[in-house]
């Protein structure tokens, strides 16, 4: 789809029951999902640093406290272990907490509560207690965030049995997936790619940013709708190769493939755990080539799991080794961000390599 | 510039050398025991402020030790909960049962019936008496040494032993290490091996109860060693910020495995006194005085229930036995400590109180102990019908894959099938067709 096509008229909303459609950016879509769930379910509670009166440092919770009250949407002390720990207790009581961790880079103080408690609670109590919580947290780079405002720690969570990991890449998905996460009875980490809060990203940081309103996936139906967890989205259909991506990198990969004129089948995984293995398998068996793209560091990143699965399951259909395009195995740098970021050059090289074999 | 060392001298050479202080307990194996630092306050002399008081009014109580039972075996002072003899006998009955249970389960571990056990000997009051001061539907978030709460709430002994044996009757399906009980029916939260994680969870539960306008409160237990965990700090902060209806019980039994309480910070202050810095009400209580424990827990429960705020209670007691069946305390502390602990034994003290009241006698005590031992023995036999650890009568192996998530994802389905094949190979002597 060309940029010109993307900017033309309203297309039909997909999967929604509601006729009214608004063009929202990802922040507004997330805010809308929270608003709807606070309205629908009196057990939904939103908590975190600066989420209450102020409405969040990224405005995702703006207006929610005023509308739903201070006991439903409130500010917390600066303590990630406390935020996640009390959310586990609230879940045990029967509430459905939606804690926010201001940046994924700051989730580590809460890791014990997530890994040892939230993820294990259903299992260790044989379903007596559950942790139906959704931890929302902005992640990813591309914003000059330096070491502690850019990280992509998803692989730390996909490695934990008992946790679900969800990453939207569009406003439409962000709303529908977040509603599904909040209603899910398992603990979910909902990573929000902050580079694309306001608009999709081509990977060319030196070009003007596109706003969401020019993108068809910014058409967000009013009211309640869900996107099921564990189901990938086919961004583009193609025959030459399969691209597996999520979050910001869906848009970067799409832009590179379009630019190069490659007939790529791009899958936006949307949920890393549980993974849509059927969609991955079907696509790679069709194309015979697979490129995996993520921002996170390479070694033991989620791409390694994807590569292993593709190799195990599609080995006799592969016409070239599986390629991984990732961040480098360094802490996220500040000044050298665009040398670190897996942008068009790195992706383009990998595509050339895949198609040459 | 006067504070700067001379340019031609080594930096700091004009100052005394700094020294790192590494705490050391008063006695080690073979040493004469010195308990002179242990506070033994006069029973009945501690004031009992109003339950709705400002947290600052509890400052004196954070450094004192609330005691009710005197050397004369009588109850003294404003903290006397004035329990009727039937309630006291019930409490004593729970003590007897906990002690009998611990004895038999410890022996069961030594006989190889299970892998692990932890006694609470000497600390029975801190769970039984505290639990009796709460409503039965107040939610408790225990550590691993509060089996007394389950006993006081009437949990089935057979269920407890099934869990310890990880047998086919185990409600937790053999997934959990022995003694990591869970009973939603008894408002008893699932025990975790990770220390102090339950403390912010208890605060969160209490916040939820307040959000919903409920009347139930939460109580949590944590050892003095685990108060050093960051979670405990978070729990205290969140409790005070939201005025959560929660009780934070710190069981100061002097030892965290081999580390004496100095390594959790006891040398220069009390654990109760930490409450003050957070703006929590704080009480420091003789943990071997069943009446004082009951009274303090009731005070804190009333305070929480009246929206007057959370309370941190330090129960000062002594871990009379090893940390666990995997621990030998003669490797790090004097064997005489237990004998000479100045606050005595909670069971004996309550028994002597009832005798002093003319409501009990040695013969009835002997009979109570015998009945408790019989009850535990009968429950053990019943549980052993469901198997003991490692004798094959465990949960079906497929249950290993259940409850990781609400629904089985594809990868766990595949792994469950793999496990099925492995079982067929193991027991059918060849690969399945």
Please tag this protein with its features.
heterodimer; A: 357 residues; alpha/beta; Rossmann fold; five-stranded mixed β-sheet; four-stranded mixed β-sheet; 14 strands; disordered N terminus; B: 433 residues; five-stranded parallel β-sheet; 13 helices
What does this 3D model show about the protein?
With 357 residues, chain A is α/β, with parallel strands linked by helices. Chain A is 34% helix and 18% strand. Chain A has helices spanning 3-7, 26-40, 64-68, 80-93, 111-118, 121-124, 154-158, 171-183, 248-260, 277-287, 302-314, 337-340, 344-356; strands at residues 21-23, 44-48, 73-75, 96-100, 134-139, 164-166, 188-193, 219-221, 233-236, 241-245, 264-268, 271-273, 290-297, 323-327. Chain B has two domains: 55-384, Thiamin diphosphate (ThDP)-binding fold, Pyr/PP domains (Rossmann fold); 397-426. Chain B is built from 13 helices and seven strands. Chain B has helices at 59-63, 85-110, 124-132, 147-152, 157-165, 198-211, 230-241, 274-278, 290-305, 336-340, 346-356, 362-384, 410-428, and strands at residues 139-141, 218-223, 246-252, 255-256, 259-260, 281-286, 311-316. In chain B, the strands form two sheets. Chain B has a five-stranded parallel β-sheet with strand order 1-2-3-7-6, with helices on both faces. The model of chain B has no long low-confidence stretch (mean pLDDT 95). At the A-B interface, helix 4, helix 5 and helix 6 of A face helix 6 and helix 7 of B.
């Amino acid at each position: 789809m060309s940029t010109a096509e993307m900017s033309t008229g309203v297309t039909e909303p997909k999967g929604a029951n509601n006729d009214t459609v608004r063009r929202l950016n990802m922040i507004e879509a997330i805010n809308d999902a929270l608003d709807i769930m606070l309205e629908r379910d009196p057990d939904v509670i939103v908590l975190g640093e600066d989420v209450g009166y102020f409405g969040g440092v990224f405005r995702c919770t703006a207006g929610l406290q005023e509308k739903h009250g201070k006991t439903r949407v409130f500010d917390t002390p600066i303590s990630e272990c406390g935020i996640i720990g009390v959310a586990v207790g609230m879940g045990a009581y029967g509430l459905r907490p939606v804690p926010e961790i201001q940046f994924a880079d700051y989730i580590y103080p809460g890791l014990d509560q997530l890994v040892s408690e939230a993820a294990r609670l259903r299992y260790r109590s044989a379903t007596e207690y559950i942790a139906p919580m959704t931890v929302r947290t902005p992640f990813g780079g591309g914003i000059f965030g330096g070491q502690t405002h850019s990280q992509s720690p998803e692989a730390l969570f996909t490695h934990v049995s008992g946790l679900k990991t969800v990453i939207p890449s569009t406003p439409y998905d962000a709303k529908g997936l977040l509603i599904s996460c909040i209603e899910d009875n398992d603990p979910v980490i909902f990573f929000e790619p902050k580079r694309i809060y306001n608009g999709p990203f081509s990977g060319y940081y030196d070009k003007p940013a596109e706003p969401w309103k020019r993108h068809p996936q910014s058409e967000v139906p009013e009211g309640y709708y869900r996107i099921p967890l564990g189901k990938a989205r086919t961004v583009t259909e193609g025959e030459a190769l399969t691209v597996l991506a999520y979050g910001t990198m869906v848009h970067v990969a799409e832009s590179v493939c379009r630019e190069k004129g490659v007939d790529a089948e791009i899958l936006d995984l949307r949920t890393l755990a549980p993974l849509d293995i059927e969609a991955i398998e079907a696509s790679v068996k069709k194309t015979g080539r697979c490129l995996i793209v993520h921002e996170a560091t390479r070694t033991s990143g989620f791409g390694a799991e994807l590569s292993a699965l593709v190799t195990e399951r599609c080995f006799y259909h592969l016409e070239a080794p599986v390629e991984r395009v990732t961040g480098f195995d360094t802490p996220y740098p500040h000044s050298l961000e665009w040398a670190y970021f897996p942008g068009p050059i790195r992706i383009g090289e990998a595509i050339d390599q895949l198609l040459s074999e | 510039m006067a504070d700067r060392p001379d340019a031609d001298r080594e930096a700091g050479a004009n100052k005394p050398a700094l020294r790192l202080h590494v705490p050391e307990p008063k006695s080690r194996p073979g040493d004469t025991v010195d308990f002179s630092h242990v506070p033994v306050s006069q029973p009945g002399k501690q004031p009992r402020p109003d339950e709705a008081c400002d947290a600052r009014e509890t400052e004196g109580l954070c450094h004192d030790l609330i005691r009710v039972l005197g050397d004369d075996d009588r109850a003294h002072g404003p903290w006397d909960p004035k329990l009727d003899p039937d309630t006291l006998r019930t409490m004593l009955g729970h003590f007897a049962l906990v002690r009998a249970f611990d004895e038999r389960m410890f022996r069961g571990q030594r006989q190889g019936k299970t892998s692990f056990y932890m006694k609470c000997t000497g600390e029975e009051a801190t769970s039984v008496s505290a639990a009796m001061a709460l409503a039965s539907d107040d939610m408790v978030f225990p550590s691993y040494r509060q089996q007394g709460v389950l006993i006081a709430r009437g949990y089935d002994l057979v269920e407890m032993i099934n869990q310890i044996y990880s047998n086919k009757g185990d409600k937790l399906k053999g997934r959990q290490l022995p003694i990591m009980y869970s009973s939603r029916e008894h408002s008893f939260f699932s025990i975790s091996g990770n220390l102090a994680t339950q403390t912010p969870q208890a605060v969160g539960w209490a916040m939820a109860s307040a959000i919903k306008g409920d009347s139930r409160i939460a109580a949590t237990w944590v050892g003095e060693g685990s108060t050093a965990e960051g979670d405990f700090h978070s729990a205290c902060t969140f409790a005070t910020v939201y005025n959560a209806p929660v009780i934070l019980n710190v069981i100061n039994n002097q030892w965290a495995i081999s580390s004496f309480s100095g390594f959790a910070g006891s040398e220069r202050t009390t654990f109760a006194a930490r409450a003050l810095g957070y703006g929590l009400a704080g009480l420091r209580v003789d943990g071997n005085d069943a009446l004082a424990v009951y009274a303090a827990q009731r005070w804190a429960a009333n305070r929480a229930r009246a929206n007057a705020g959370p309370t941190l209670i330090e129960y000062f007691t002594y871990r009379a036995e090893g940390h666990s069946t995997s621990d030998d305390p003669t490797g790090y502390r004097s064997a005489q400590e237990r004998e000479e602990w100045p606050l005595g034994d909670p069971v004996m003290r309550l028994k002597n109180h009832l005798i002093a009241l003319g409501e009990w006698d040695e013969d009835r005590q002997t009979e109570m102990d015998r009945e408790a031992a019989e009850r535990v023995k009968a429950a053990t036999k019943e549980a052993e019908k469901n198997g003991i650890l490692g004798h094959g009568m465990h949960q079906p192996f497929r249950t290993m894959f259940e409850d990781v998530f609400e629904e089985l994802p594809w990868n766990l389905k595949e792994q469950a099938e793999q496990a099925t094949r492995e079982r067929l190979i193991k027991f059918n002597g060849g690969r399945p067709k």
